[in-house]
Design goal:
5 helices, alpha+beta, seven-stranded mixed β-sheet
């Protein structure tokens, strides 16, 4: 099925400013030749019954079956297709999560206190075509996850599928430098209607982490 945009319902009409010599006749002629521009902000996308909007946690197809990537939509955009001239690709700008397994084989190995289903929010962004989206995920704090699944992974196949779409997030990370933020409560830093609050929290947390590391190195 094709993807369609969902636009902001509070569309703003932008009209040309009036000048001193404007007359009703002149204004009428101008509008008939050059209608007012519509500034339409894209806030979401839909394919059939499936919808996703800015701030949603989504799953994106991974080459490894059953291990989709997790990210948050920060913006929707239209990009030129690199392979097809004059073709427009509907895309989403993604803020990525990183799983502990992604640190294996590097000098910045994963933390020893990683929890089941835990991932870390990063400040890594890039755009991906909407066709790479495979569904929605859920992110929560450790306490919310434990309350939802007190007995661990469910045995029911349908419930297990939903369990695998849930992740715990309690830290941000800079993968290249191997720095983590202090532990936070996800529900306090994430607001889908203000995704920039989360971005700022992670950025500030990583700055503090860098200052702590510099102070520790100076003491040593």
């Amino acid at each position: 099925l094709p993807w369609d945009w969902i636009y902001d319902t509070s569309e703003e009409t932008i009209q040309e400013p009036e000048t001193k010599d404007d007359t009703p006749a002149k204004r009428s002629r101008r509008r008939s030749v050059r209608p007012a521009r519509q500034k339409r902000k894209i806030v979401g996308a839909k394919m059939g019954q499936f919808q996703c909007k800015v701030g949603d946690v989504i799953l994106l197809k991974s080459p490894e079956a059953g291990k989709d990537w997790v990210g948050i939509i920060t913006e929707f955009l239209e990009e030129e297709d690199e392979n097809e001239e004059d073709e427009i690709v509907k895309s989403a700008h993604i803020m990525w999560f990183a799983s502990p397994g992604e640190f294996m084989g590097t000098r910045n190995k994963c933390r020893t206190d990683a929890l089941p289903n835990e991932q870390y929010i990063t400040l890594d962004f890039n755009s991906n075509p909407l066709t790479s989206i495979s569904g929605k995920g859920a992110v929560m704090s450790q306490s919310a996850f434990s309350a939802k699944y007190p007995n661990g992974p469910p045995k029911n196949k349908t419930e297990l599928t939903e369990y695998n779409k849930c992740i715990v997030c309690r830290r941000g990370v800079n993968q290249v430098q191997g720095r983590y933020t202090d532990e936070f409560i996800w529900e306090q830093v994430y607001n889908k209607d203000n995704i920039h609050h989360l971005i700022n929290c992670v950025r500030d947390g990583l700055k503090s982490s860098r200052k702590r590391k510099a102070a520790d190195d100076e003491v040593r």
